[in-house]
Write a structure and sequence with these properties.
The chain has 190 residues and is α/β, with parallel strands linked by helices. The protein has a single domain (3-188), classed as 3-Layer(aba) Sandwich (Rossmann fold), CATH 3.40.50. The chain contains seven helices and seven strands; from the N terminus they run E-H-E-H-E-H-H-E-H-E-H-E-E-H. It has a seven-stranded mixed sheet with strand order 3-2-1-4-5-6-7, covered by helices on one side.
């Protein structure tokens, strides 16, 4: 059986690219499409370079049934968020119950919720004085960053680290572990 992933992305798309590259020649899992709500997202270029179908939808399309129908048409089995900044619509959550995964650039439950993304997270981590941060990979439900945690990976923070240094350390974790954890998560459902 082949599993087909749809990636939802809103920005630069480095995590989306890591996922597309990882599954390029996978025997069971394929990236079927990248969907974005941002017509200026660099993730679009990354999808084109990877030969992955890319489609742009409005915020209203994502909130309505248009995207759900498209996922069904594309025979998508799982959804992976990769820098997607909108709350996932309830009909998508219902249709893909426990089949939507997200990566967050901090150790949830710290630094999560609406408005906590990208450099905002790393700046908050730096301001806190925490000595560790990392990534959280979790299932998606109807609340920002509150789904069941599947995995967390940590990295040390030093007092001399800037928010940019923290971001770079977290990006390394994201690109290394997100595709592997997606694979493990999907294959366990076989």
């Amino acid at each position: 059986m082949e599993y087909r992933i749809a990636i939802f992305a809103s920005g630069n798309g480095t995590n989306a690219e890591a996922v597309m590259n990882y599954f390029k020649d996978h025997p069971y899992i394929k990236v079927g499409a990248l969907l974005t709500n941002n017509p200026n997202a660099y993730a679009i270029e990354r999808a084109k370079k990877s030969g992955v179908l890319c489609e742009v939808y409005t915020k209203q399309d994502f909130a309505g049934e248009k995207v759900s129908r498209r996922l069904s048409d594309l025979r998508i089995s799982h959804v992976c968020l990769a820098g997607y900044l909108l709350l996932v619509a309830e009909d998508i959550i219902t249709s893909y119950h426990n089949k939507i995964i997200n990566i967050h650039p901090a150790l949830l439950p710290k630094y999560g919720g609406k408005g906590m993304y990208g450099m905002k997270v790393h700046e908050a981590v730096k301001a806190s004085g925490d000595t560790q941060t990392g990534i959280t990979i979790h299932l998606v439900n109807s609340m920002y960053d509150e789904g069941e945690i599947l995995a967390q990976k940590t990295v040390d923070i030093f007092p001399t680290d800037t928010a940019e240094d923290i971001a770079n350390k977290v990006h390394e974790l994201e690109h290394r572990y997100y595709p592997e954890i997606i694979e493990s998560w999907i294959m366990k459902q076989r």
